[in-house]
Each structure stands twice: as C-alpha cells, then as structure tokens.
Amino acid sequence: MKPRDLSRQMSAEVRRGLAERSFAPPRGDDPFTKELTGRPPLQARLFVTVEVDRYGDVRVAGLGELVCPWVEELLGSVPPAALSPVQEINAGGLSFALARETFGAMDEVEHRSPLAWRAESPEQGEEAVAQFLAFVDGPVARWIEARSGSDALRADVAPGRPGADDGALVRAVATLDAVLGDLPSARQRLQVYAVHPQRHDTAERVQAFERWLESVEPRDG
C-alpha cells in the first residue's frame, strides 16, 4: 500500500476511534472536541495529525488542550497590544487555551521528546492506531481529568509551575479568574508574571491586559 493510501486509512480509523470516545470529528484543520460537564463549561480538544513523514512512514502525533467558551469569547475582543506577541501575530487562528500539552509531555509519560506512532504497512498501521487510542484512554484521559475544574486549571499556572511562564496561558487563566468573579486573583497572577515575562512579551503588554480585564463582568452560568 502506498504511504498516502495508508495515511488515509489510518486517519479514518483514528476518527472512528475518537468518535467512539465522544470526541466530535474536526472540520479541516480544526481539532477533535469533547464537551466536559461542570462549571465553568470546558471543552477538551485534541489536535491530531496523521501524515507521511520524510522517510515515507505514516506518523500519528498531536497535542491536547482545554478551553472555556466563556474565556474564548471574551479574549476575542482584547486589544492586540494587550496580547502576547505570539497571540497578536496569530490573532484569529490561535485558541485561547487554559491548558495545553503535547502528547509526549503529558503527565506520567516518560518519553519527553515528540511522541508519535509510526507505520509502514497496513498491519503496522492497525497496531499504531490501537496504541494511539490506548494512549488516549490512558495518559490523555488522565491529563484531561486532572484539569477538569477551575481550581486545577488555576493551580497549573501558579508561581513555580511551568504554565506560570507562558504569557498566553497566564492571560487565559486570569480571564477565567475574572469571569468567575475573582478579579483580585487575576490581578495578582498578571502582576507576578509581569515581573519576568517570557521572551518578546513585555510588562507594558501585561499591564494593558490587566486594564482590559477590569471590564470583564462575572458569569453566573
């Protein structure tokens, strides 16, 4: 079987397997999505690529993220100069995730380089898809479950945690603070981050975001 045909076959099997796990199929380059219960409303997203690499193997890889529709709706109106440079450059094409991680860096995964499942034949393809779906049932499901609430999402960007250095995540979680009625925590989160913003971000941008955040009104449901 030609690599391109194998890629199409594996892609169809991945879509079928994720649909069985309640992930809605994507349109074009959109992610697979799954609505989570609770407050605030959260959505799990899996960005999964099934493609032929430069060696002719078919490769399955991707990342996961959690978003809140309330937060995404609000952040779509932020002045560009208050966003991180990456967010500003990708305005309209970048989700405002509250948590984001590649498969290889998720909790309990020992493989800390880009994690992928590869195949050269239909038999290997079947095994690769089965292994990928088992990974979704294991580390991916546990990663999502561990962050399926506002307290866990806030803790993920607390000082000393890796997310605390990510300007996009800090802005998104600060917006979550505000939308849940905790503006003091939002201010503190942004002020701590502004002391040492990530490369290309600036304290002035963070302060502009903090001023915009004053206009956010809490949501009850």
* Helix fraction bin: 40-55%
SSE string, helices as H and strands as E? HEEEHHEEHHHHH
Shape descriptor: elongated
Number of domains: 2
DSSP summary, beta strand count = 5
Radius of gyration: 19 Å
Question: Regions with pLDDT < 50 over 5+ consecutive residues?
Answer: none
The secondary-structure class comes to alpha+beta
Biased composition (Basic and acidic residues): 1-19, 27-36
Region (Disordered): 1-36
Structure commentary:
There is one protein chain. By secondary structure, the protein is α+β, with helices and mostly antiparallel strands. 44% of the residues lie in helices and 15% in strands. It has helices spanning 3-20, 69-75, 85-89, 122-146, 150-155, 167-179, 183-195, 203-213; strands spanning 32-36, 42-52, 58-67, 99-102, 117-119. Strands 1, 2, 3, 4 and 5 form a five-stranded antiparallel sheet that branches. A hairpin with a 5-residue loop joins strand 1 and strand 2 (42-52). 37% of the residues are buried. The model has no long low-confidence stretch (mean pLDDT 90). Residues 1-19, 27-36 have a biased composition (Basic and acidic residues). Residues 1-36 are annotated as: Disordered.
Attribute tags:
221 residues; alpha+beta; 2 domains; five-stranded antiparallel sheet; 44% helix
Compose a concise summary of this entry.
This protein is an alpha+beta fold. It is 44% helix and 15% strand.
Task: Summarize the helices and strands and which ones pair or pack.
Elements: H1 3-20, E1 32-36, E2 42-52, E3 58-67, H2 69-75, H3 85-89, E4 99-102, E5 117-119, H4 122-146, H5 150-155, H6 167-179, H7 183-195, H8 203-213
Helix pairs in contact: 1-4, 2-6, 6-7, 7-8
